[in-house]
Amino acid sequence: MKNSSTTPVTDAPTPGRTTGAGRLLITVYGVFAISATARAGFQIATQFNEAPVAYLLSAFAAVVYIVATISLARPGRKWALTATAAICVELLGVLVVGILSVADSAAFPHATVWSGFGKGYGYVPLILPLVGLWWLYRHRAAAKA
Length: 145
Known about the structure:
mainly alpha
């Protein structure tokens, strides 16, 4: 059916959270998913008895990064909600582990991805969820589609 108004009809999709800078965000999350998975896997396989809590936290962080990466890359409201939940868990983890590792360094004899607020990763683990949540908020209208 033709549109009788003077406004042109376009079938072009509205730019969403997976375009432009969103691709860079997804890439960074993907890199963190791979690096945290590799780090946790190696530590659990070779040094688990030295610091099991730290290494299990790194494995948990890896799972969070994987879920965040996949859900950020997928279109739709359900995926946006999943990404928001994963990134909120990430932010909470970075803050809690960061505070605990700074307040009681003996509790974390070996570093995790989130120790010292991500100090070992240039504080990117602290900044990344803030950027991710901002990006999701900015593209919340596109997620409703």
